[in-house]
Amino acid sequence: MGHSMKKRRILYAGYLDPGETSKYRCDALSRLGHEVRGFNVQQYLPRWGKARAVVERMPAGPLIASVNRALLREASEWQPDLVWFDKPIYITPRSLRRLKVNGIQTVCYNQDNPFGPREDGCWRQLRKTLRLFDLHCILRESDIQRYSEWRLPFVKVLLSYEPTMHFAPPEGWSDADRDRGLAYTGSPHEDRPAFLLQLAERYGLPLSVAGPKWPKVWSPEILSRYVTGGFLGGEAYREAIWHSRINLAFLTHLNEEDIAHKAMEITACGGFLLAERSAGHSACFEEDREAVFFSSVDECAAKARYYLDHPLEREQIAAAGRRRAVASGYNNDTQLEIALNALPASQSVN
């Protein structure tokens, strides 16, 4: 990483509860030497459930007004150079214009996709504000054409891992410590339930699944055979990777992904990565040397069986994958520094 970047006062507006990936990014900006203050949007909103869903789909009214008032008050009192917005689905055009009038720059960082076919239902407010940010961080190839055609200022960055959370297992860790065979940690998006069930029941592979929402798609009998736990975050997620001989990663096609966030985290944790083949994954990791890829359930099953039976090759690929993730800067610090270096020169209007 370069060291000539100017140091800023950054107000970081996002979901900043412990374990949130936006909290990791907020911490990374501090590590880069900036003076950072967090603005936790979550403290102004209902917690999860129907009330939260309603606010996301109808971002108006007293709750949204209170978020924006509090943000502008914080910016007025602290006077940052920059407000970094992480998935700003509640911020109004008026608030962004107020920041701009006061000479404060703004960045929009959003891991999810407001324009893909998945239609999450929470993007109405964000779409109104797109032209008001000084810089957009985009994370998928499909956005390059969109943002170029719309003439929006953007920089392409990678989904990134958190180096203080995603790191290799202790020295001496071996296959004897891995009690999960073919493991998937995550949600039952798209065709993953059927895909995973084929791996287990058609091919007889030792499947282990952890994550939320599986009781909604699998029967109690299937759950009892393959699901070992619910949502795993933080240290529990890292240790699940450590305890897995093979870690699966899928693309969310309705979100137009070309790289799975888990691919970065798994390799950073020194895990063996078996991921869906894509141009993005192939650009980040050399196939069969730093990670292994599949394009069908048959290919996935064949490769899983081979590498379960060849632990030495598996260890070598996992170690090479971690070296690549570290050397290529797939971490929060490097990717956020790329974004900050792409910001246009500030134009104070005070």
UniProtKB/TrEMBL annotation:
Residues 194-334 form the Spore protein YkvP/CgeB glycosyl transferase-like domain. Gene3D superfamilies: Glycogen Phosphorylase B. Pfam families: Glyco_trans_1_2 (PF13524). The keyword Hydrolase does not apply. Keywords: Transferase. One of its GO terms (molecular function) is transferase activity. InterPro entries: YkvP/CgeB_Glyco_trans-like. Transmembrane segments: none annotated. This is Glycosyl transferase family 1. The lineage of its organism: Bacteria, Pseudomonadati, Acidobacteriota, Terriglobia, Terriglobales.
